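Exercise 3.2. Students should predict the tertiary structure of the chain below and write it as structure tokens, then compare their answer with the key that follows.

Predict this chain's 3D structure.
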Amino acid sequence: MMGLTNLNSTHLSSAKITAAQDAIVALEIALAEITFNLSADDRKRYGSINEQNKLFVNKVHDYNSSQPNLSSPEVDWEEFNRDHSSRKNMEAMISRLEGLITKMNNAKTLHDYDNYQAALVDYSFTTYKAGSSASGFEDKHKDLKQFFLKSSPPPPSPEDKK
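Answer key:
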């Protein structure tokens, strides 16, 4: 029985690939002023705000919005609100981009599967033709065979010999 092939036969045109690449460049340019390359030490130092702490920040934001008289005068609330808004906007964009990346990875996986299945069919054909001494197929078979080297079984253990 033949395996499934051509699981993804939808392909982007050259124009759509160019448009997508241009959109990525435009996104990189649009976000350049707010993107940073943090070192591993920086990421460790500044950490990541966990869900509990996000709830805390949101609650402080809510109090400041609804009852500003209860807010600390030592906090720059305009900057706090800009940070809060930026974080929410970035989180929404990241979520959308992660969804797009997941979909692109899924499409790529199907293309990879299709390529591998077709390569196996070609290898079987090459093996057949190499056995018939058709010109060029023996060299191709030798070259491709390296990807199918079988590992030798482990030597029997002393317990197996008993």
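Discussion points: The CA atoms of residues 2 and 117 lie 10 Å apart. DSSP finds six helices and no strands in the chain.
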